[in-house]
Amino acid sequence: MLRREFVKYLTAGAAGQFILPMAGANAASTLNVFIIGGGMAGATAAKYLRVWAKRLAIDSLVSVTIIDKSDNYVSNIMSNMVLTGEKTLTSLTYSYANLKTKYGVNFIKGTVNRVDLENGWIYGQINNTGPTDIVMNATPFNRLVLAAGISLDYSTFTLNVPAQVYANPYDAVPHAWQAGAQTTLLRNQLVNLKAGNHVAITIPAGPYRCPPGPYERACVIADWLRVKKPGSKLYLIDPSQTADGRPPVEPNNFGHAFTNIHRNLVYVQNAKLTDLTASLSGATKLKTLSIAPVNGTPGNAINALSAATALTVEVANVIPKMQAADLTRSILATGGLDADSRWAVVDEKSYKSPVSGVYVIGDSIKSANQPKAGHIGNQQAKVCADAILREFSNVALYDAPVTNSACFTPVTTALNRQYGARASWLTATFRYGLDTDNSYRMLKVSTNIESPGAPSKDNFESMKKWFTSLMQDVYS
Amino acid sequence: MRGYKLLLCGLSALGVLIGSEAQAYDLNNGRLLASNCTQCHSTNVLPKSGGYDSLVGESYNEIYGELREFKQKFNTVTKTCTENDPKECLMGVHAMPYTDQEMRDIAWYLSQR
Ligand SMILES: Cc1cc2nc3c(=O)[nH]c(=O)nc-3n(C[C@H](O)[C@H](O)[C@H](O)COP(=O)(O)OP(=O)(O)OC[C@H]3O[C@@H](n4cnc5c(N)ncnc54)[C@H](O)[C@@H]3O)c2cc1C
């Protein structure tokens, strides 16, 4: 806390009263927080723990360390624009340099394998070389924040890829849902298409990371195909269905874009992937997708699938079913996961897990209302950091924390001669409170709000401001 | 220096300030709630170059007044924006959750330098 602010605070205090700390108030003890995963949520938690500890003049007592597999974070947000060549992965890459130098966050590069919760030791491989199960932390942690994101589950369909088609069968189904090598793989497959070849994107059953993401991707790839690969179609296979056939997410924005702009986009609802078989036709690698209705009764006569069918395309972007990161699931296996053992259970007031000393933030958590998204992961991280500091200082937690989400989505690309690059957004705010089932959780305050009007150039400019600002809030 | 720090620590760690009059603000609450603004805005605590209109240097009255105005731009009954301009609507959604006391705590925290 700055001296001036402190004085002012004291003056204000004269009008009110301070609650005195409990005897000792942890004076002798220190916080040693280890954060596994330095993505949108983990990096934010680290930064705000240090910024706020300094502001409260307890920074000498608060040590914060991030462990991440990589010393460069590649943003998923905006990565669909890498697929269309409008952005590069380099422009979406962030380092931990600012967190280290400006805020005194410690960073260890390495992959975590397991954690000894009782004694505060983290085991894994440092620098991703050498022994794979050695102690990574020099001092035992007394708070552990799990922010390791998602892992992918391919068990919902069968994958048949002969070795002569792809040596690695998963190369037949790039997900590009964790930006980096996967994004490049999908981009290259798209670039290598011949005009008139087709592309399919399959959407997983929810909850999945970034609800508008698949629809955004369908829009920008369709836009790119129309210009770069005339005659090519984009099939979007969605397990959801709605009465009017519009997408379940951002029905106004995407509904408008699908109907009025992207004529080469074939949108199929009530449809799930059951099998994908790869084959060769000359040098061309084909993928045949078996698609089945999710619900026996189609929800509309417009685009809901009523009977099983097959579809052959040259590029198959299969976005698989998701769950909390494997590490998170193994650490929390005893008492910290939901009934399906997929997601981490937390109290959304503090992001505390039922497993003692552990907090979970970001995409790994189970939440009735909060989406799995980077902007809100950033806010969850702040609520968690605040809770850790309040608890350490014997200050009561805030009764009803607020979080907010914002997802900007490009809907057309700069290649589009008629429309230019346009975007829309989806936003929502949440507050902790008592739900109708008598449980406390984050509740929707605003509901989901879509940008008013059609996707616009103005929103595209707005999106740049938002993205720059959000990423600075995490990594600068 | 060390003693000074510890004194600050002792007092600020207790953090919660109970207001017996309207002009009392809660440091911890303001800090937490105002963190819902830093994704999109540059602030005194965390200045930056990108983002929407910077809040750096704005006074308590400016921020509190703007928040109250933006809150009006969201109709909580119909759950829609009363403004067609997407930016105004966006900010309206982000002002709507807060109570009057919360807006005061946010404005106070953000106006500190
Ligand atoms: C195409 C696309 C578009 C998107 N657009 C938006 C948008 O507009 N707005 C929005 O809010 N969100 C968007 N998202 C969602 C957003 O990217 C994620 O929700 C967000 O990244 C989740 O943050 P996280 O911190 O939980 O996980 P991540 O950001 O994935 O971070 C997890 C980190 O943990 C590390 N890690 C994992 N396991 C280990 C281990 N064992 N040891 C060490 N490190 C480990 C990883 O290396 C990674 O750095 C989009 C996502 C996609 C795919």
Explain what this protein looks like in three dimensions:
The complex is a heterodimer of chains A (476) and B (113). Chain A has helices at 3-15, 40-55, 80-83, 97-103, 181-191, 213-228, 251-261, 326-331, 374-392, 457-475; strands at residues 17-18, 31-36, 62-68, 72-74, 93-95, 106-116, 121-126, 134-135, 143-146, 150-153, 158-160, 199-202, 234-237, 265-268, 271-281, 284-293, 309-313, 315-318, 321-324, 358-360, 402-410, 423-434, 440-444, 449-450. Chain A has 476 residues and is α/β, with parallel strands linked by helices. Chain A has two domains: 3-149 and 325-475, FAD/NAD(P)-binding domain (3-Layer(bba) Sandwich); 153-321, FAD/NAD(P)-binding domain (3-Layer(bba) Sandwich), CATH 3.50.50.60. The longest helix of chain A is centred in the C-terminal third of the chain and has 19 residues, at 374-392. Chain A is globular and about 65 Å long. Mean pLDDT of chain A is 94; it is low at 1-28. With 113 residues, chain B is mostly helical. Chain B has one domain (26-111): Cytochrome Bc1 Complex, Chain D, domain 2. Chain B has five helices and three strands. Chain B has helices at residues 2-14, 27-34, 60-71, 86-95, 100-111, and strands at residues 17-18, 74-75, 80-81. In chain B, strands 2-3 form a two-stranded antiparallel ribbon. In chain B, strand 2 and strand 3 (80-81) form a beta hairpin. In chain B, helix 2 (27-34) crosses helix 5 (100-111) and helix 3 packs antiparallel against helix 5. The model of chain B is unreliable at 1-22 (pLDDT under 50). Classes of the chains: A alpha/beta (476), B mainly alpha (113). Chains A and B meet through helix 1, strand 1, helix 2, helix 9 and strand 21 of A and helix 1, strand 1, helix 2, strand 3 and helix 4 of B. Strand 1 of chain A pairs antiparallel with strand 1 of chain B, so a sheet runs across the interface. The complex binds flavin-adenine dinucleotide (FAD).
